[in-house]
Every structure is written in C-alpha cells, then in structure tokens.
Write a structure and sequence with these properties.
Blueprint: H1 2-6, E1 11-14, H2 21-51, H3 58-86, E2 91-93, H4 94-127, H5 132-135, H6 138-163, E3 173-174, H7 181-186, H8 193-227, H9 231-259, H10 269-291, H11 295-305
Parallel strand pairs: 1-3
Antiparallel strand pairs: 1-2
Helix pairs in contact: 2-3, 2-10, 3-4, 3-6, 3-10, 4-6, 4-8, 4-9, 6-8, 8-9, 9-10
Length: 307
C-alpha cells in the first residue's frame, strides 16, 4: 500500500505569490508589463549587438550572451506565473516542474560564469590593453561563452537527475510561484538529505569561486584605474565597471540568501521576495544597467532610430 501511495502524486499545485483573489488581476498586469519589458530589453540588446558591426567586440559578445541568459531565466518562470494569476487551476505536472527548474537553474549558473568572463575581459582590457586584441580573440570569446553555457546545463542536469530518486506522496502543494528545488525537497517522501547537501555544496562552490574571481579581477582593475593620469580615461572605465559591479552585487546577493545561507523553515514571504528579485527583477534591470550609461550602445540605438 505504501508503494502504491508513492505513485499517486503526478502533478503539483503552485500556490503563487498570494491567495488573495483581488490581487490576481493587478499582479498579472504588473508582471505582464515587466515580462514584456524584460524580453524587449534583453532580446533587443542581443539584436542590437548582432546587427551593429561596431559592437562585435568581446565585451559586447559577453553582454549579448548575458542578455540571452536573462531572457531564458525570466521565460522559464514568468509565463507560468502569469497563467496562474488568471487561472483557478495552478497545477503543473511533475515532468514540467522538473523542466522548469532545469531551464531556470541552467540560466542562473550560466550567468555566474558569464559574469566571471566579463570581469576577466575588463581586467585584460584595462590592465593589459596592448595584449587585449591577442588575448581576447573571437575564438577564445566563443569558447568562454560555450563553456559557460555547458557548465550551466551540466550543473542543472545533475540536480534534476537526482530529483528522480525522490518520491512525492505526502503533499503535492508547493508554497511558491515556481518549481524551486528546495521547496520540492520539503514535500518529498524520500529523505532529501543527499540532494540538499549537493545543492548546498555545488551552490556554495560555484557562487564563492565565481564571486571571488570577479572581486579579484575588479580589485586589480581598480588599482589600474587609480594609476591612470587621464581624468577622462578614469571616468570612462569607472562608468563601465560600475555597471558590471552593480549587476554582480544584485545577482550574487540574492542567490547567496537563497542557496548559501542556512534554511529558515517554511517558505516565508521574504524568501519569495528574494526569488522574485532574481527570477523577474534582475533580468529586467540588467539590460538597462549595462546600456543606459554605455555610449556605444546608445550610439547604436540612435543610429537605428535615425534610419
């Protein structure tokens, strides 16, 4: 009988951000606008970099790859959330749940490594400008991007693969707005200790190593900037690096609170806010953070608008 019960759960119910009926339509409209702006900003930036030959440089190739990862991250979560705002049926199949987490996890991990190669790119450009064209060749940049995505897909595949060892029989209600892996562990009938430890170990290792690499790169960049005699040169470099550091701070800050800090019991409202920030808000902000103070991007936009 116990074995029979373990096969009962074939779908989950996502409770969403709130259970208040009066807030469903307003929230739908807010997040629809956010999603459309996110797609327009990120895919528009990818198209702009693709179309303008002046932006075919390592920094913009990495930026375009980051924008695409952000678009994938948002698309893995937001469409289902929008559907649930207007539907009374918040059901998602076990398979679809795992697929959703896979694509979100892949995008998040890929972004970690893309931020590293972007920091390395700025380090070489500022600290070794004469060697930059040789070191950061198009072939090497393509390899960096490919490896970043490969690690992202592989990392997520490991955790999704391990989900198949878990069974769900006690409850099928996920008190969240998407299939977040830690929430799946909470309703598992199988002991998820191994899964939880691996998520903690991999997340800590990836986040700490990539974050420290980024910090070392920008520390060296900072020293190089302080040595520059030209005030104009300093200002230009500070403008570029400050955008990168703002994006890094937002991204790693929220990921750290979700996956590295100790757990705090059931899914509290602040946990949902952290998740909402890195699944919805950061993908919205990134293209604007990188573009608004970037003269080359603004020049490319004006060039297209004037045609």
């Amino acid at each position: 009988m116990a074995e029979e019960n373990k096969t009962l759960v074939t779908e989950f119910v996502l409770t969403g951000l709130t259970d208040r009926p009066g807030l469903q339509v307003p929230l739908f409209l807010v997040f629809l606008v956010i999603y459309l702006l996110t797609m327009a900003g990120n895919l528009g930036l990818v198209a702009l970099i693709w179309k303008d030959p002046h932006l075919h440089t390592p920094m913009y190739l990495f930026l375009g790859s980051l924008a695409f990862a952000d678009a994938c991250s948002s698309s893995s979560v937001t469409p289902k959330m929008l559907i649930n705002f207007l539907s009374k049926n918040h059901v998602i199949s076990v398979f679809d749940c795992k697929v959703q987490f896979y694509f979100f996890g892949s995008s998040a991990t890929t972004e970690c490594f893309l931020l590293v190669v972007m920091a390395y790119d700025r380090y070489v450009a500022i600290c070794n400008p004469l060697l930059y064209p040789v070191v950061m060749s198009n072939n090497l940049c393509t390899q960096f991007i490919a490896v970043s995505y490969f690690i992202g897909f592989l990392h997520s595949a490991i955790h999704v693969g391990l989900l198949f060892r878990l069974t769900f029989c006690r409850s099928n209600v996920i008190h969240y707005f998407y299939c977040e892996i830690l929430q799946l562990f909470k309703i598992s009938c199988t002991d998820p200790t191994v899964n939880t430890l691996l998520v903690l170990i991999f997340s800590t290792f990836i986040q700490v190593c990539t974050f420290m690499t980024i910090m070392v790169s920008y520390t060296l960049v900072l020293f190089a900037i302080l040595k520059k005699k030209s005030e104009k040169g300093r200002s230009k470099v500070f403008s570029t690096c400050s955008a990168h550091l703002l994006s890094v701070s937002l991204f790693y800050g929220t990921l750290f609170f979700m996956y590295v800090r100790p757990g705090s019991g059931p899914a509290a409202d602040h946990d949902k806010m952290y998740s909402l920030f890195y699944t919805v808000i950061i993908p919205l902000l990134n293209p604007f953070i990188y573009s608004l103070r970037n003269k080359e991007v603004i020049r490319a936009i004006r060039k297209i608008m004037n045609k």
